[in-house]
Amino acid sequence: MGQKRGNDSKPQAVELKKRKKGGKAAKASQDDSWDGMVSIDELNWKEVAMPDRMADAEGFFGLEEIDDVEVIRPQGNGEIQFKAKSGKPKKSIVRTPTAEETKFEEWGGFSDGESTDKPTGLTTVTPEPAPEAASESKEDKKSKKKETKEPKKKDTKEPKNKDAKKDAVPKETKPKDTKPKQNSKQKANLTELSFAALEDDDDEDGVDVSAWDALGLSPELLTGLSKMKFATPTTVQKSCIPAILDGHDVVGKASTGSGKTLAFGIPILEHFLEKRGKSNNSKKPPAHPMALILSPTRELAHQLAKHIGDLTTNSPDTNARIALVTGGLSIQKQQRQLANADIVVGTPGRVWEILSTGTGLIAKMQRIRFLVVDEADRLLSEGHFKEFEEIIGALDRKEHNDFPEDEEEDEEEEKEDETKARQTLVFSATFHRDLQQKLAGKSRWTAGDIMDKKESMEYLLKKLNFREEKPRFIDVNPVQQMAQGLKEGIVECPAMEKDLYLYSLLLYHPKHRTLVFTNSISAVRRLTQLLQSLQLPALALHSSMAQKARLRSVERFSSPTADPSSILVATDVAARGLDIKGIDCVVHYHAPRTADAYVHRSGRTARAGAAGKSVIICAPDEVVSVARLAAKVHAKNPNATAKKLPLESLEIDRRVVSRIRPRINLAKRITESNIAKEKVSADDNWMRAAAEDLGVEYDSEEFDESKGKGRGRGGGRLQREKQASSITKGELAGLRAELKNLLSQRINIGVSERYLTAGRVDIEALLRGEGNASFLGHLDPLNF
Ligand SMILES: Nc1ncnc2c1ncn2[C@@H]1O[C@H](COP(=O)(O)OP(=O)(O)OP(=O)(O)O)[C@@H](O)[C@H]1O
Fold it and tell me: Using one digit for the tens of pLDDT, what is the confidence trace for 601-620?
């Protein structure tokens, strides 16, 4: 078993087997008198391969490990040392400095501040802001701190230190990245596991980030933002970051994909940098976590950790430890991770499990500076309320601090930070209308009914114990809940022809990455198979799939190398928070059940200022409820009236519908037969196993006969299933061949000899392969 390390070694800790990467380059003397002892930073660490699932990454990213070393404990207070295990060459455990490190070593540092006797390594070469920037920024931080101590009475959107900061920050931040290997490699590891599309790793150039100047951020984070190519803050970031930096509690509402994660992530990291700067010891593990971010689902928690982690990785010298606390790992491990993290991201169930069983963890967590509740309304619908209430109760309980070693730091903190109360930040894209009115101060809170309405958002907010009497309610888009670049459409069709219209829509929009929502798992299964049999690159996502299969589907769908026409068929498990870049179109195969679901589903496209489309396929008996739902979503939109909603009615060309019907009929028969066969075989296996357990004989034919005779509920379905499953292999092969033949031809929508000779068809264009490759003839686009 090898040793593992992370970024910060702590000599006294025997568990220093793990630390974040980025230790000093080795310069161990390798002459004959050398006794073979090396320090932690001189070891030849190897990067640990990242596991398939983020959950298996144990919460900390970028670990390194080493084999064949012995840990030599110090006498007294000395540093732990290492030496090669007996039988191994002494030098085998020593790292050779890279050419780059040697170069920097010779160069001798950046400025007066750098001590020349520093041994070696990345700490020496970590990019520092220009000297004046560094000193000004310290001043700024001090002044900002003063402001933070007391939430301002007046709502100032810009921090006071704006001007000073402005000078400190390079306009065109082209960071002299002195940790290129570490950063890009860590980034690669993370992005491999990410839901988001991979970015071009080779391109290290930053963008101009002067648009962020007004927010007065540190040079470190500006460099990170520059590298991530976030040239301007989004509206929610512009409004929330100053309020949070000023120490206010914030309830933030902003449309999907508008950048809410960094709206709270950036102030948290600013606080981290400020506190770390003061402690003058970046290597010491934190006495307690600084922020707790609660998220309703594992996927979202992973995404949040990754998004904030990306910013820390890209920001020089910002090695905040992020612990991901979700199911799937040993409690003891997560207790350790949580205790040593700067930022804890987790689901309420798991966080509570860890806190309630760990010794002293509650006392540590009581000292967090930020509590973030993301996708707050879903936290309730996911049934996390009980654990959430327990966590809040525990955080607010008075407990003794049983960490004597932290006392010194505590006193220091206490002296400097008079506002010990934590800041609470609540974010979502949807809050119901009554609550919005109350938060905006337009209607009153009535204590009586709130306490009766347990598990409501009102109750949750009351429980949160804000530091201020009233949190700042920042509603970035009070009139428009939908993203600006989103176009909404509706396709009306007979209830039994939704497959046909879905297929038409997909053919109308080639090279569109499409997310199709259904209301049931069985519909996801059926539609995925149906589309696959039509040779479309469809993938499934629903909650009954194993976690690994879910992640695989999302990654295959979102990978930049994926087919640009990729289709993900999903239940509402994918409706919230999932940040997949480049989804062009969301199709609601089943109408969403609530207005919020419509907002969140549609919010998977048109993210971060991009354009996107959302189309509801609507049966006649759904039209009224869909119109009501759209009216609710657009209630405050001045351009929408009950008669004129921003829902474009999309007319699918009848010729298309009639020409593709044979394809759909064949594909449906093949799919139904496959599903019925799978089901029969699963039932059969189950019956056989049950019969075996009971010690009776099982005759499947006899059983089938008795099943088919039933006239009660489900009798018709059983008959259909039986019929579908009774198609022979030969018949099925025949159907497949027929479908394959149809799919090999383009859909002819009006090209005949008569048209060709009458000049109705641009033959040249046809030969050039222009237009929609699925069709032969001219197809009027949907203009949508
Ligand atoms: N300032 C910025 N400039 C450009 N892109 C940004 C900026 N801030 C965030 N993004 C990108 O925008 C996307 C959406 O961000 P995020 O996931 O935080 O949105 P959200 O508001 O939380 O959405 P949802 O409500 O759906 O969870 C992400 O891919 C993120 O990388």
Answer: 999 999 888 999 999 999 99
Q: 168: alpha, beta or left, given left = phi > 0 and alpha = psi -120 to 50?
A: alpha
Per residue in 464-484, pLDDT (tens digit) is: 878 887 888 898 876 677 888
pLDDT, residue 111, reads: 27
Q: Render pLDDT for 538-555 as a digit per residue (tens, 0 to 9).
A: 999 998 888 788 888 988
- Nearest C-alpha neighbor of 7 from the set 393, 488, 342, 427: 342
- C-alpha of residue 425 to centroid of ligand 1, in Å: 17
Cβ neighbours of 213 (radius 10 Å): 18
Q: Torsions phi, psi of 489, nearest 5?
A: -135, 165
pTM surpassing 0.80? no
CB of 217 closer than 6 angstroms to any ligand 1 atom: no
Q: Name, in order, each residue with C-beta under 8 angstroms of 447's C-beta and a sequence gap of 6 or more.
A: none
Tell me, what's the ipTM?
A: 0.98
Residue nearest to atom 25 of ligand 1 (CA): 256
Q: Which of 221, 228, 230 to mutate to test the pocket of ligand 1 (most atoms within 8 A of CB)?
A: 230
Strands (E), 582-651: 585-588, 612-618, 647-649
Q: Is 260 in the pocket of ligand 1 (CB under 6 A)?
A: yes
Tell how far the Cα of 261 is from the centroid of ligand 1, in angstroms: 7
Q: Which tens digit of pLDDT belongs to each residue from 113-171?
A: 223 232 222 222 222 233 333 333 334 443 444 443 343 333 333 333 433 343 334 34
CA–centroid distance, 148 to ligand 1, in Å, is 26
Is the Cβ–Cβ distance between 664 and 503 less than 8 Å?
yes
Q: Please indicate whether residue 197, judged by its CB atom, sits closer than 6 Å to ligand 1.
A: no
Ligand 1 centre and the CA of 435: distance in Å? 24
pLDDT at 166: 38
Decide if 231 contacts 255 (C-beta within 8 A).
Answer: no
Whether 236 contacts 252, CB under 8 Å:
yes
CA distances from 59 to 20, 62, 371, 625 (A): 12, 10, 19, 44
pLDDT of residue 92: 72
**Gap from CA of 260 to ligand 1 centroid (Å):** 6
Q: Is 230 in the pocket of ligand 1 (CB under 6 A)?
A: yes
603 lines ligand 1 (CB under 6 A): yes
How is residue 600 written in tokens? 């969140």
% helix, strand, coil for the chain, step of 5: 45, 10, 45
Q: Is 233 in the pocket of ligand 1 (CB under 6 A)?
A: yes
CA of 310 to the centre of ligand 1 (A): 12
- Ligand 1, atom 15, lies closest to the CA of 259
Q: What is the pLDDT of residues 247-279, one digit of tens each?
A: 999 999 888 888 999 999 999 999 999 988 766
Say yes or no: CB of residue 22 within 6 Å of ligand 1.
Answer: no
Would you say 596 and 482 are in contact if contact means Cβ atoms under 8 Å apart?
A: no
Which DSSP symbol is given to 422? P
Question: How do strand 370-374 and strand 567-570 relate by DSSP bridges?
Answer: unpaired
